[in-house]
Amino acid sequence: MFYKRFDSYYKINDEYSVEMLHSRAQIAETIAKNQILSGNNNEQMIACAIKRRFDDLYGSSWQCIVGKSFGCYITHLENHFLFFYFGGFAVLLYKNN
Hints:
This protein is α+β, with helices and mostly antiparallel strands. The protein is built from two helices and five strands, in the order E-E-H-H-E-E-E. The protein has helices spanning 18-37, 43-58, and strands spanning 3-6, 9-12, 62-67, 81-86, 89-95. A five-stranded antiparallel β-sheet has the order 1-2-4-5-3, with helices on one face. A hairpin with a 2-residue loop joins strand 1 and strand 2 (9-12). The longest helix is centred in the first third of the chain and has 20 residues, at 18-37. It is globular. The chain starts with a strand and ends with a strand.
């Protein structure tokens, strides 16, 4: 497994088109930005807002982790993984069964 860098988004292998990656990342970024600008820097609340929006848009079973320092070891569905940095936070978003 390897990472390719596209602006501030990370893509694993070639699962997404660049356009799909940026589209989904922009949705998650907008949610994070709105939360932060409204004074909410609570990582759990930001993750909750992103997860709920992705569940609404793309079906349930999305998982979201937001933080400044974390490690992970996960299993995700193919074409359902996104990792990026925004506003000092790392955002990991993936879908599983």
